[in-house]
Amino acid sequence: MPESKARKKAVDKKKSKNKAKAKEASNKKLQAVRIADRAWVPYVFVPVGLIGVAWLVLFYIAGYTIPFMAVLGNWNFAIGLGLIAASFFIATFWK
């Protein structure tokens, strides 16, 4: 005996709901993994920021007596501030 169209629509609707629930459950698992994966952030952004500050302090104190810093000249400011800016950018990944 052939199935009615209403019955087939109900079965299809139930299948789509089950797929949506399964997809939602997998998304929650992925989201939990992503949050757990961000434990590295403070261990990276703090040292990068401190290296940037140390670079600037070292350049202010003894910049032109250190050969590679003397060659870089005022680019030392860009390097130090770039490291500090990178630190703030990395910090935005922290949850």
TrEMBL record:
Q: Native species of this protein?
A: Propionibacterium ruminifibrarum
Query: Any transmembrane segments, and where?
Result: 40-63, 75-94
Cellular compartment(s): Cell membrane
Q: Where is this region: Disordered?
A: 1-25
Q: Which GO terms describe its biological process?
A: cell division
Nucleotide-binding found in the keyword field: no
Which domain of life does the UniProt lineage start with?
Answer: Bacteria
Q: Which InterPro entries match?
A: CrgA
Where is it found, in Gene Ontology cellular component terms?
Answer: plasma membrane
Q: Which NCBIfam families match?
A: PRK02251.2-3
> What are the alphabetically sorted keywords of the record?
Cell cycle, Cell division, Cell membrane, Membrane, Transmembrane, Transmembrane helix
Pfam families in the record: CrgA
Q: How does it sit in the membrane?
A: Multi-pass membrane protein
Answer yes or no on keyword Membrane.
yes
Family the entry assigns? Belongs to the CrgA family.
Free-text function comment from the UniProt entry = Involved in cell division.
Write the protein's name: Cell division protein CrgA
